[in-house]
Amino acid sequence: MSDTWLNEGLYDSWGQRFRVRKELAHVKSPFQDIIVFESDSHGRVLMLDGVVQITEADEFVYQEMLTHVPLFTHAAPKNVLIIGAGDGGVLRRVLEHKSVERAVMVEIDGDVIELSKKHLPGIAGDAWNDPRADVIVGDGIEYVANAPDGSFDVIIVDSTDPIGVGEVLFTDSFYQHCARILGPDGLIVNQCGVPFMQADELRETSLRRAKFFPHVSAYVAAVPTYVGGFMTLGIACKGGDPTVQVVAAVRARAEQTGILGATQYWTPEIHVGSFCLPPYIAKHLPTKK
Amino acid sequence: MSDTWLNEGLYDSWGQRFRVRKELAHVKSPFQDIIVFESDSHGRVLMLDGVVQITEADEFVYQEMLTHVPLFTHAAPKNVLIIGAGDGGVLRRVLEHKSVERAVMVEIDGDVIELSKKHLPGIAGDAWNDPRADVIVGDGIEYVANAPDGSFDVIIVDSTDPIGVGEVLFTDSFYQHCARILGPDGLIVNQCGVPFMQADELRETSLRRAKFFPHVSAYVAAVPTYVGGFMTLGIACKGGDPTVQVVAAVRARAEQTGILGATQYWTPEIHVGSFCLPPYIAKHLPTKK
Questions:
Q1: No. of H helices and E strands in chain A?
Q2: Of A72, A75, A189, B244, which shows the fewest CB atoms inside 10 Å?
Q3: Where does spermidine bind (chains A, B) (predicted)?
């Protein structure tokens, strides 16, 4: 076994470390420092600016929850916008939904896409070539600022934490445009970090989203390599309250897509249950009106 | 900030690390290597044989789920046996349940109790002095082998992983005696590790428990410093199926104890939802008869 270890640099005084079998790529793009390495424990790992974004072994948790929850919360999502998610894993899951007619993915860093295609081909699979996919290397902020009113049903924001290149995806202006370009039943999901370590992220982005959406909440997922207990995925809806879903309705939608039984983490029960937040997390959400 | 880091040694090629502010104790007991240190990130941390057992910052997750779930699953727990849990945190939570008349705690390593009393006094609080508590420094296996038939309602096993001193708590003989000393509605809970990293632990102990209990299942908790996604708590019941509980009934029990609203992780909704397992975990449980 190799004696080379890579420490995640997300937190000052605590974190995870990986034994590195082999570094596959290390690129300084115009936006960030990108590393792909082969780990002993988790298959291949993608790190941006020293922070784990995805590993082959556990990517299914984050991807399934970031995608299937919003797409089954919306009654009939046809047009989906993905911001970030350069590895293509969200795109692949979005396209598993037969109702989806168009999936636009806007990733600012073309190098992340290229390195993912080369070193993590299993994560996106054949999604890049799906005729419904429109992959744009560009600025997500600019894209939402210019997109027509009501042109999307679901927006999925798969950003880094609100430092560095991802910071602008946590601003008033961004959420305001998102609300504008969503249809009347539209909803947006974005990653809000691990509240045990980064409670500010959930608290502040929830307050921001509450300015533009009537229903602001969050749901949880236990992602093995986003260490520190539950991570939260923030959800904001223009239509119904996402916290009052029932298992049978979610199950019926999943049956129609063929996704039921094909997931490793997401199930209709986990979908509904993930909106039940532990008090230590719930206290960071805005009080319901 | 100190430049001293302590790496958890649980897994060969992946794990967490803590910046150590100060080592408070390092004792080689007859059973294991015990370290208590002050971390920068999680308050004080107790490690046994290089594996994190508890931190002041996140102990509430594990303790609440290990205690409140079995004690609210049983209709009226009076006699509770705790094996291990030398820090006293489970004992404290058990005694919060007014229905409990007697809580016997059997910890094999007296040094863990003494070091916890000295360095982690907040975890057990005043539980050590509760007249209902009977704290025994001794062998849990021997205790269950000698205890009378049907003398307990709930058994909570807070062991280390099935290596070293904790190994005997994962044997047929141990579970057989546990089944014998439980009453007709009795149930046992034990920690079954983090399945993403240690699936064997859940699979093997579930099979063992299935030999002696009609209902064998597991529920999940996202414990920040038991890294690797959900940890599982195995539950085996002589009476009813624990997976079919309803929120209103759990809530009614919690209201009677005064625990409702006083927890940071456990809620009636999370109690019931924690039995909904992701498929990647559920596949390790025995098929239901």
A1: 10, 12
A2: B244
A3: 87, 158-161
